[in-house]
Amino acid sequence: MTRLTAWFSEGRSTGKHTLPFVVILLSVTILASAANLFLPADSIFYVSTYTITLLGKYLCYAMLALAVDIIWGYCGILSLGHGAFFALGGYAMGMYLMRQIGDRGVYGNPLLPDFMVFLDWKELPWFWLGMDQFWFAMLMAVLVPGLLAFVFGWLAFRSRVTGVYLSIMTQALTYALLLAFFRNEMGFGGNNGLTDFKEILGFNLQADSTRVALFLITAILLAVIFVVSQKILSSRLGKVVLAIRDSESRSRFIGYRTDRYKVWLFVYSAVIAGIAGALYVPQVGIINPGEFSPINSIEMVIWVAVGGRGTLIGAVIGALLVNYAKTRFTAIMPDAWLFALGAMFVLVTLYLPKGLMGLYGQLKAKRNTVMNKESQA
Amino acid sequence: MSTLDSTREFFRRDQVWPFLAPEQAAVNVDNQVILYVEGLNLSFDGFKALNNLNLYVNDGELRCLIGANGAGKTTLMDVITGKTQCDSGTVFFGQNHNLLNKDEAEIAQLGIGRKFQKPTVFEEQTVFDNLELSLKTDKRVLPTLFSRLTPTQIDHIDEVLKTIGLAKHRFMLAGALSHGQKQWLEIGMLLVAEPRLLLIDEPVAGMTAQETERTAELLTSLAGERTVIVVEHDMEFVRSIARTVTVLHQGSVLAEGTMDQIQSNKDVIEVYLGEEAAAGEQA
Ligand SMILES: Nc1ncnc2c1ncn2[C@@H]1O[C@H](COP(=O)(O)OP(=O)(O)OP(=O)(O)O)[C@@H](O)[C@H]1O
Ligand SMILES: [Mg+2]
């Protein structure tokens, strides 16, 4: 009996989608990669490098959606500033890629990126030092978003800022960073951002094999993060997180320092967003301040809402579907996308409060009751 | 003093550095009193919810708090558990824990459990999870992440499930329970936490007569080992469990004593029981 109870209380978690998800994700990724590398371009099963890159981009968005869902769907903290963490991770990668250009830039300066030469700077600013080392840049890609999230979370959660005030603060955070990164004096390439990358770890970024490798790495990391997050959220910590979402004050009265839980979950989520950003930049080939724009952060929330918040799989599905729709839609009517997005959000909020995953759950429940009735009859 | 001496002093073997010392010293109840509330004042926009309130509760006692609506009973519990800051006064748990400079979580970890007037359980989680969350464990972030239920803990939860009569509903979502069952679950959450002091606000509201009786039994059995403070309007219930009753009126203590003493107390008859007594005479 005791064993059974333990098994139930641990096995009852929502982890049942994890294995199928990982298997599907990895097999699709491997098949697509193989189809790109080994099939001739005129084969009907050939997957173009453009498609590979597009898929890689979607997977980065899926990872980002996961980050938003962990904090919003599970802990009830509606962050409208996750784009900031994503962009910071992206900038860290961008700085590394910039320094890999070396003297192949337009101005041929071996040390300074083109935009600094253009601004007539004589030496590298201190925060660019060390960014030519891949490991250091990657460390920064997780450390900077994590640290920012820690400081922000510490201040906000300790003073018990919640709800809409917190959301507004996160918007202000990303907006402030947007304005800062627009400035040339900041040393991040201003308006144009960082681009014209040549290679990563010595591999040509334009080569098919590099693109495929980036795509594969993104998929693997997404799977790893998915599994780890699932583990975390189905531990007792996950239960505390849900408890905080549903009644924070009650959780305090049974002895949990809820502010600390929120800070650490926020940091974890920001680090995931940073990793997603770092994977995104080499695949799309550019990072500019536009990534900080408040509307981006709102879009992420919509992905999660559409897919179904509070389920990791829902966040991934939402990100993939909405971004696929966006690619399709902007090809036909570029200007109308924001309206379509808004309409989607309203519809989902009104009719599918639990998103597509909620709908799936309802349909399954209905089918089960019908089947039960039939078997009784 | 030489450097050597100061180094020796710093590395003394017979004591630990203050920041390494266990934060929670045991509750000191040498004077038999576990809760000291003295000169408590609290006003909401000029309205005095607590007015120079003094209250002492002995270790192991079962104390009933009664008083008309708005007398300040819930507010007193809010102050003790750190939910509300008071304007002036002192609240001590034992002789050594000043509760006024601690937050809700610290106070809970000291061993003060609370049941709310309006039952609040975690509706999206199962009955079992609700109890697991309330267990008396290390509640810091990392230990919580890596914690596993031990067989002893599971047995303990099972036992409590039996006591509160929810053994059959252990995997049911707490939100799907009836009002009375939620009350029981909340009492169960108190029990698994094994607190030293229980503050229970209107436990029998929404319970059937039978359930009320069982609650009375449970609370009386808890007293002795634990200290219990119960707020209740149901006079029948109070009469069945009370040893000492404290009457609150307009934010301060009006009378204190056994149920009989209280019932014959003039002031009390006037302001509280008066209405009931008058109603009784009319009937
Ligand atoms: N946050 C608050 N802001 C303003 N007034 C408050 C607040 N909390 C309580 N009060 C007031 O303080 C008074 C005491 O309230 P309290 O809830 O302690 O009464 P009570 O004795 O628990 O009554 P009941 O038997 O109805 O539960 C009430 O008049 C209430 O309106
Ligand atoms: Mg009350």
UniProtKB/TrEMBL annotation, chain A:
Chief subcellular location: membrane
Coiled-coil stretches noted in the UniProt entry, renumbered to this chain: none
GO cellular component, one term: plasma membrane
Record keywords, A-Z: Cell membrane, Membrane, Transmembrane, Transmembrane helix
InterPro entries assigned to the protein according to its UniProt record, in alphabetical order: ABC_transp_permease, ABC_transptr_urea_perm_UrtC, LivM-like
Pfam families, per database record: BPD_transp_2
Signal peptide limits: none
Subcellular location: Cell inner membrane
UniProt membrane topology term: Multi-pass membrane protein
Transmembrane segments: 21-39, 45-64, 71-93, 134-157, 164-182, 212-229, 261-281, 301-324, 336-353
Single GO molecular function: branched-chain amino acid transmembrane transporter activity
PANTHER family the UniProt entry points to: HIGH-AFFINITY BRANCHED-CHAIN AMINO ACID TRANSPORT SYSTEM PERMEASE, SLR1201 PROTEIN
Protein name: Amino acid/amide ABC transporter membrane protein 2 (HAAT family)
UniProtKB/TrEMBL annotation, chain B:
PROSITE patterns (UniProt xref): ABC_TRANSPORTER_2
Cited Pfam families: ABC_tran, BCA_ABC_TP_C
Top-level division of the source organism's lineage: Bacteria
CDD domains: ABC_Mj1267_LivG_branched
SUPFAM superfamilies: P-loop containing nucleoside triphosphate hydrolases (SSF52540)
Keywords on record: ATP-binding, Nucleotide-binding, Transport
Gene3D superfamilies: P-loop containing nucleotide triphosphate hydrolases
NCBIfam families, sorted: urea_trans_UrtD
Protein name in UniProt: Urea transport system ATP-binding protein
